[in-house]
## 1
Amino acid sequence: MNRPYTARRLPERTVALVLAGGRGSRLQQLTDRRAKPAVHFGGKFRIIDFALSNCVNSGIRRIGVLTQYKSHSLLRHLQRGWAFLRGEMNEFIDLLPAQQRVDEALWYRGTSDAIYQNIDIVKSYRPDYVLVLAGDHIYKMDYSLMLLDHVEQGAGCTVGCVEVPRMEATALGVMHVDENRRITAFLEKPKDPPAMPGKPDTALGSMGIYVFSAEYLYQLLNEEMQNPNTNHDFGKDIIPRVVREGRAVAHPLGMSSVPYSQDTPAYWRDVGTVDAFWAANLDLASNMPELNLYDEDWPIWTHQQQLPPAKFTPDTSGNHGKTANTLVSGGCIIAGSDLTQAVLFSNVRVHSYCTISQAVILPSCEIGEGCRLHKVVIDRGVIIPPGLVVGEDPELDAKRFYRTDNGVVLITCEMLEKL
């Protein structure tokens, strides 16, 4: 096999299907109006931008996005920010909302059913390989290397996997592998995840990334539809069956993570809880963030509104504020306030005399004069009244807002309206 030639051609023979229909209920009120993949992240992006950017940067430019739950925000983002692919060159992002194609009484019943209900569309692309992706994780990965590994291993299905702390794997599929990376057992979201051999505090978790040989996937989906005792889910049904048939191979993220360096730990985050979302955003404002957004060789693409530069002005007394370890996006205006460890998304206004720390402030928010905000996530469009104090009295915070066990306080418009 000519590896370089094969690696270049495989993305052209592949279709990526991004599963973006989930609500993400663990994000609490952040997903009341939008699906989890449409949640804002990193100052100017949406969560789904990372999976889509990995596709484009890997050379995969035939992409279907399957949506269901409260998809308007997501669809609008894709239409505005991802319309640059060229249809005349067989490049596209197809939007595949749940539309009861197979049964007029049923929406998508699970991840595998979502693809089965669009199987005629998938077949019309005539792919040799189908890359199935979750649209709600943060990472940078070269899928062409995973495709090459799939072909060289002769697998029916290759499962992307990552080492995670053992008890964090309760929200993931967990697998056992042999010395050749063949998966010998697969457990979906176990309450007591099994540890890796020799690593009692670590489990091997599924990233929700699968490469299938196309004909094998069609066979699996068709046969699953004949089974009355199915959850219509990849993790619960399809992958365990492939494991039983001995055709599943694990692909560790370290084999294809970006940047291509053994000295750089592979980065992957499930930002599915308020705590994890808050922590992953704030890490971007640290001195040396684990996720490099400044890598020009692997850019993260997104829809970007045309906004004026961020501006810092004195407060109403003419004094300047202080800013440290803070990301500030376009359209923001900060007037003489102190900001430490914060991520400000687009069009945020901070009035005079505020003290803000460990804060993630989503787009179009306004922080009134004299506020003290610590360890908060503020939803899009929230107007914080002057003088509000959050993060100093845990009991008061829990009465007014949503407060996690870790002390992160989520503030939404609806919560403020009830004060």
Note: The chain has a mean pLDDT of 93.
## 2
Amino acid sequence: MRTSTKSFAVAAVASLSLFTAACGSSDSEGESAPADESTSATPDESSTSADPAADLVGAGCADYAKAVPDGKGSVSGMSQDPVATAASNNPLLKTLVQAVSGQINPDVNLVDTLNGDEFTVFAPVDTAFDALFKELGDDGVKKVSEEKGGGTLSGILTYHVIPGQIAPADIDGTFKTVNGADLTVKGSGDEITVGEGNAKVICGGVKTANATVYLIDSVLMPPA
């Protein structure tokens, strides 16, 4: 992990509101629920008619496809669900899902929020969290998990989320995160880095029903 325990402590004061919106398909016939279908026609259209793998970038996309070739956690499977649900089906994102669903700190449960709007999400894979927890040590992890209000964890998680969906072709730049702090992304194709620690994009442009996801190899730390 590129970020030190000290950086984590310094970054501890932000707060949160994370991820994203649900959708469905559109059909005017009586057998389908018109309300559901009409409100989510556009997202569902893109996830069912367009190739979910068309805009993927990152040197790890082939490995991701091998690890999760089909099912709800695959590239095509994730495109059918809102981002919090889609992430919960991805075996590479188990710790992230625990973090946003109240399993690490019960005061940080973002699932409903995450399934409520469109976002770009930088999603640290499990090995990224493993490295962070190792660096923090048992005492550090305990402090974060038991912190009343969950401000530290909330601040970190929201720093991984940008309002609106950003495609790989437009991802190079500086963006305002849900945390409120700016996040800089550099590069294109298989060479995209994120944040001051230069976290690498493993596989990006992964579509969910309401978000564009970039799997990354490090946990990002918000600035002090």
Note: Residues 60-216 form a domain with the FAS1 domain fold (CATH 2.30.180.10).
## 3
Amino acid sequence: MAAVAGLDARDLAVLALEARPWRTAGAKERAIREELGLSGTRYYQLLNALLDRPEALARDPLLVNRLRRIRERKREAR
């Protein structure tokens, strides 16, 4: 995957993985480890930083805005 508009291949892979539907418990965590070679903690750190980048919003506005809303709801619930 080539870099696109300020996003590197890993950023694009994180967005692509996040956009996929997950049918079974643990499937997403397994994909994070196997496909990206990241721990769950590191993946979510990268994802949260990515959600704040205008390049990610430009690349996939529906996904990024949905994830931002979910993140905000979780913060408000604390």
Note: The helical segments are 9-19, 27-36, 40-51, 54-59, 61-77.
